[in-house]
């Protein structure tokens, strides 16, 4: 990292400007290379500062509110937010204040606000850290909170917000032996067989990464393949496959996998992942709605709101406003119907989304059952290790929420159902 910490902090402020004002996602910004010019440590620091600021945004704003008569332009406001988060996390006051004052003073439009930056952050340094823990756990923005409270109730919502605020541990899926991966990486084996690491460093330097012994995958995201229960030699279609976590799980169990995704860029990551792990699958870049063939089993991990992944992606509720969701729900319906036409009689299809919205899970399955007289929900398929009976839903699926396993560090929100086609 640079001595002053200014370049990393400036980049964190830039990320916040783009996320909060332009509605861009962190993944999109990192994919576009906005941090690529920074040294590696500065890149990690900038991303961490931006993510921490987004998680604690409501608290930072409450602390800053006391010291601001009116809001400064958003770049300066975001610099104050980053500074507040650092101060409340216990960083040395002089380092944070000096760096933020320097950052603002070098700004070509807002250099006149360096005095305000200095004065406000000094006040935050004096009272912010002790105020921090007296403030409520940050809430989701209303556009998302309202439908989630309606779906799961206020207590569950508060529990999910507590997990979002805490952030997420690192979960790994072992190619073969979870106990060996846990021993090598200092993790624990979760009830479902994933390996969880509380304090992870840089992933690519961890033991077993180069050898391809494991890949990063949230414990909840690893469950759909367990529910599908692939058998060696089965012909399995993995629809919407990139970046390939589930493709690798299917291939590791000896299935003949055809992986389809319409993003060439994301499919390149599937290829890299397969190469690193020494696993095989046929990769096809195409729209899932034109895929052809006949398959013993299908995994449909449909594109969705990704509202189940907020503890890892705290930018999402700030960058989005829900306006894209009805188009996604419509797309999911089309994917289900087309995928169903590719399934052999007697075959099974797992439909899943990393969403907390029933419209992208429970409701999709209810409606698919009405459209397809040869479709049934296979409830027995949910009998896999680590799955709690309380997570089962009325229509026969599995509802996973971030507040489940909260003592172990939570899990991503997911919906999973196994749909069985009538025999010929
Ligand atoms: C939830 S992600 C899949 C995650 C993946 N199954 C895994 O486990 O790593 C959804 C994927 O759907 C893909 N997608 C979106 N629209 C698509 C379409 N029309 N046809 C095929 N893939 C599509 C996206 O590129 C994205 O990679």
From TrEMBL:
Q: Which UniProt keywords apply?
A: Methyltransferase, RNA-binding, S-adenosyl-L-methionine, Transferase
Q: Membrane spanning segments where?
A: none
Q: Which GO terms describe its biological process?
A: methylation
* EC number(s) reported in the record: 2.1.1.176
User: A Pfam family name for this chain?
Assistant: NusB
Active site, UniProt feature: 354
Q: So where does S-adenosyl-L-methionine get bound?
A: 240-246, 261, 301
Of which family is this protein a member?
Answer: Belongs to the class I-like SAM-binding methyltransferase superfamily. RsmB/NOP family.
Q: What is this protein called?
A: Ribosomal RNA small subunit methyltransferase B
Native organism: Roseobacter fucihabitans
Source taxonomy lineage?
Bacteria, Pseudomonadati, Pseudomonadota, Alphaproteobacteria, Rhodobacterales
């Amino acid at each position: 990292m640079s001595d002053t910490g200014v370049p990393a902090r400036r980049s964190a402020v830039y990320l916040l400007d783009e996320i909060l004002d332009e509605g861009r996602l962190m993944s999109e910004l990192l994919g576009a290379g906005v941090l690529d010019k920074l040294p590696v440590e500065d890149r990690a620091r900038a991303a961490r500062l931006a993510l921490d600021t987004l998680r604690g945004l409501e608290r930072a704003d409450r602390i800053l509110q006391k010291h601001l008569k009116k809001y400064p332009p958003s770049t300066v406001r975001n610099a104050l937010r980053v500074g507040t988060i650092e101060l409340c996390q216990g960083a040395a006051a002089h380092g944070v204040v000096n760096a933020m004052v320097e950052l603002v003073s070098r700004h070509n439009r807002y250099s006149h606000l360096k005095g305000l930056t200095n004065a406000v952050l000094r006040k935050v340094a004096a009272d912010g850290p002790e105020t921090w823990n007296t403030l409520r756990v940050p809430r989701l923005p209303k556009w998302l909170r309202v439908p989630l409270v309606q779906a799961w109730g206020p207590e569950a919502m508060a529990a999910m917000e507590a997990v979002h605020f805490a952030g997420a541990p690192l979960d790994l899926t072992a190619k073969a032996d979870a106990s060996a991966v846990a021993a090598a990486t200092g993790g624990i084996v979760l009830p479902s067989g994933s390996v969880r690491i509380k304090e992870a460093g840089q992933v690519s330097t961890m033991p077993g990464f180069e050898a391809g012994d494991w890949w990063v995958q949230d414990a909840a995201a690893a469950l759909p393949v367990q529910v599908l229960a692939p058998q060696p030699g089965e012909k399995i279609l993995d629809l919407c496959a990139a970046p390939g976590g589930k493709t690798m799980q299917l291939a590791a169990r000896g299935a003949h996998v055809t992986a389809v995704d319409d993003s060439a860029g994301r499919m390149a990551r599937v290829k890299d992942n397969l190469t690193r792990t020494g696993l095989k699958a046929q990769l096809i870049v195409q729209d899932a709605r034109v895929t052809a063939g006949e398959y013993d089993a299908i995994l449909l991990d449909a594109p969705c709101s990704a509202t189940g992944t907020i503890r890892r992606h705290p930018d999402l509720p700030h960058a989005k406003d829900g306006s894209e969701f009805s188009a996604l729900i419509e797309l999911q319906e089309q994917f289900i119907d087309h995928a169903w036409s590719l399934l052999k009689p007697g075959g099974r299809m797992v439909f899943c989304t990393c969403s907390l919205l029933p419209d992208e899970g429970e409701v999709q399955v209810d409606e698919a059952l009405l459209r397809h007289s040869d479709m049934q929900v296979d409830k027995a398929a949910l009998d896999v290790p680590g799955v709690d009976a309380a997570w089962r839903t009325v229509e026969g699926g599995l509802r996973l929420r971030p507040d489940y396993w909260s003592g172990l560090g939570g899990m991503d929100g997911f919906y999973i159902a196994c749909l069985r086609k009538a025999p010929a």
